[in-house]
Amino acid sequence: MGEILSAIGDFLKEEMRKSRERAHRREEAQKQFDQIRREAKAAELGRVQAHDEYADQKRRERGVWEDPLGIKRTSMGREFWFGHDPFMPKKKRRK
Fold first, then answer.
1. pTM over the 0.70 mark
2. What is the DSSP letter of 90?
3. Alpha-carbon distances of 59 from 15, 44, 62, 72, rounded to whole Å
């Protein structure tokens, strides 16, 4: 009887060890996945910011920029509302 109980105890100990190892591997994989996702988000954010900076630079070069209120202005001081940007091709303007 004691041999059976010790065999069951050994079996349960082994199963618990395997379970802990699986949980540890799963945790490591989740950490790796989270790290990759953070890097991808940072790269995407950097790409978007770089594009925004490039677009702002181009607008400034042609005399259009956004003031702190988000209004597009030209060097002549005019404001554009509802997408009427004189630098857009005619068919892209909203009427």
1. no
2. G
3. 65, 22, 5, 10
